[in-house]
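Hi support team,

I've been running sequence recovery on a batch of backbones for a student project. Most finish fine, but this one hangs at about 90% for roughly twenty minutes before it completes. I'm not sure whether the input is malformed or the queue is just slow. I've pasted the structure tokens below so you can try to reproduce it. Let me know if you need the job ID as well.

Thanks,
M.K.
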């Protein structure tokens, strides 16, 4: 039995190792997703102190940089940072909120966008997403089978002045023990997150408290409310929440979708939202992430666990170290395989 599990542990690692490595490394980077893009582009990241101008005064500056294009999104960072206007052609315009000055223009998506796609689907769409899901299940198996293989020896001490093979064996055993359960949690939450909205009907059914609906249409009227009016309606609907993203209506019947975030929210745009009628300015629907229906709370909490966002920096650091532990497991496991370590040899090293 033990020999069979050891072989399965080895061969599944060899078969899925490269994909696991990619997912683990990108996952480590995405722990810092909230800060990543600003760290990498400081020249357009930080604003001058002061109160932000109305959108009516910020929009002309963005429109001047992209002739013939419309603003499709307003994206917000933490206090003291720029506001980013995303244009219909994909251009990103960074504006200093108190002055309305354009601090920079970027084409295409930021680095975090591509990292997310590689992490979730290897940049290969539905096929890649399915591969990542399968690999996530394999990581759970690897963690549990590794814990089973560790149990007879219960080795935690790492002999640093030994051969590469012995050091790799000790490191693989010790790090595997301490990270195994955390890896199971990260992988399991990743599977749930990977299925996205497809699982929402299931969550709604088992909780009996379905999530709110965001895709509500506006009833046509003689006048359209401004972005400033829509923002004021959203702020009144969710007091204390900051703007994360304002998605402009895409069709004549579409509404404003304003995503908002409370302190401690682990996502970039936030998990709370307000739908505002583009003609009347009335709030058509809202969801407060803190008091959301049980069906909506499951994916919110699941994502927070996956990225280590439960208790802020300490749990984010723990998620980062768990990802590094997975990388270390892959490297040391490869060394042991290359050195043709076997079960009898492992036991001899433990003596």
């Amino acid at each position: 039995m033990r020999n069979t599990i050891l072989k399965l542990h080895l061969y599944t690692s060899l078969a899925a190792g490269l994909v696991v490595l990619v997912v683990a490394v990108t996952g480590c980077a995405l722990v810092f997703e909230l800060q990543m893009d600003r760290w990498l582009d400081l020249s357009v990241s930080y604003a001058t102190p002061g109160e932000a101008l109305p959108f009516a005064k910020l929009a002309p500056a963005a429109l001047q940089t992209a002739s013939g294009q419309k603003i499709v999104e307003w994206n917000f960072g933490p206090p003291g940072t720029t506001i980013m206007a995303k244009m219909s052609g994909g251009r990103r315009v960074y504006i200093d909120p108190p002055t309305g000055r354009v601090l920079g223009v970027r084409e295409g998506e930021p680095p975090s966008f591509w990292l997310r796609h590689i992490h979730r689907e290897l940049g290969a769409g539905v096929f890649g997403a399915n591969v990542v899901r399968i690999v996530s299940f394999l990581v759970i198996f690897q963690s549990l089978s590794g814990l089973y293989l560790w149990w007879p020896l219960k080795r935690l001490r790492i002999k640093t002045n030994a051969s590469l093979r012995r050091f790799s064996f000790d490191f693989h055993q010790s790090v595997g023990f301490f990270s195994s359960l955390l890896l199971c949690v990260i992988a399991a939450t990743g599977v749930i997150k990977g299925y996205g909205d497809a699982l929402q009907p299931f969550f709604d059914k088992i909780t009996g408290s379905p999530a709110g609906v965001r895709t509500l249409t506006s009833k046509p009227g003689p006048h359209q409310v401004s972005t400033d009016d829509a923002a004021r309606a959203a702020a009144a609907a969710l007091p204390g929440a900051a703007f994360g993203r304002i998605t402009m209506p895409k069709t004549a019947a579409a509404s404003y979708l304003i995503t908002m975030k409370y302190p401690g929210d682990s996502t970039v745009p936030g998990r709370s939202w307000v739908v505002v009628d583009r003609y009347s300015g009335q709030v058509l629907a809202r969801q407060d992430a803190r008091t959301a229906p049980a069906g909506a709370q499951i994916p919110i909490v699941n994502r927070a666990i996956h990225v280590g966002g439960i208790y802020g920096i300490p749990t984010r650091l723990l998620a980062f170290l768990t990802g590094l532990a997975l990388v270390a497991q892959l490297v040391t496991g490869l060394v042991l395989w290359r050195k043709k370590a076997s079960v009898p040899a492992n036991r001899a090293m433990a003596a």
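--
Follow-up from support: It reproduced on our side and the slowdown came from queue contention, not your input. DSSP finds eleven helices and eight strands in the chain. No action needed from you.
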